[in-house]
Amino acid sequence: MALDNRIRKAYILIKTFLRLGNKPDRHKTVQEVSISILLEEVLEELSEDYPVYERIDLEIPHRVCVFADLELTKTLMTNLVQNALQHFSANIMIRLTDHELELLEELPDHTKDHARVGADDIKGLHHSSGIDGWDFHTASLICKRSGWRLSATDDAESGKSIRLNFNNS
């Protein structure tokens, strides 16, 4: 079962890179995509390999839709959530608004206090986060194609965060 999942994920990744390598044909690939529904599907799929429902709090106040390539958007959502599951040490808050998806590390209060003390050892509050690996690189390529902005931070005081702004303006 685990091998089947890895083969399926490798196939999706190869297909994504092939799609990114081609010139975008907006008339064929862009459609209305419900980020809300897509995110719930991604969480369900990732729950086979990760403790999704134990670690993630999902905050979706209402249905959010964008015009985008469905397959690329699903790969993007999968990569972002998987990246957070792999690199955030605490639980994760996923918050969706009309124009932004935030994945925030929920640090317990004592961890925040400890992180504040340790912040003096780091030159500046923002430093290399370890969340800029292969999944994040793939996500950034998809965002570039879609005209969206993607950022990741690792703040000693507030923890790690990934933000995706899918407002094309």
Describe the protein's architecture and organization:
The protein is an alpha+beta fold and 169 residues long. Helices cover 48% and strands 24% of the residues. The chain has seven helices and seven strands, in the order H-H-E-H-H-E-E-H-E-E-H-H-E-E. A hairpin with a 3-residue loop joins strand 6 and strand 7 (159-165). The longest helix has 20 residues, at 2-21. The N and C termini lie far apart (42 Å). Mean pLDDT is 78; it is low at 110-129.
How do the helices and strands line up, and which of them pair or pack?
Blueprint: H1 2-21, H2 26-29, E1 30-34, H3 35-46, H4 52-55, E2 56-59, E3 65-69, H5 70-87, E4 91-96, E5 100-106, H6 109-118, H7 134-146, E6 149-155, E7 159-165
Parallel strand pairs: 2-4
Antiparallel strand pairs: 1-3, 4-5, 5-7, 6-7
Helix pairs in contact: 3-5, 5-7
What shape does the CA trace take?
globular
CATH class value:
Alpha Beta
| Record field, number of beta strands | 7
What's the rounded overall pLDDT mean?
Answer: 78
What is the CATH topology?
Heat Shock Protein 90
In sequence order, what are the helices and strands, one letter per element?
HHEHHEEHEEHHEE
How many domains comprise the coordinates? 1
Count of individual helical segments: 7
Q: How would a textbook summarize the main sheet? A: 5 strands, mixed
Strand content: 15-25%
Query: Which class of secondary structure composition applies to the elements?
Result: alpha+beta
Terminal-residue CA separation = 42 Å
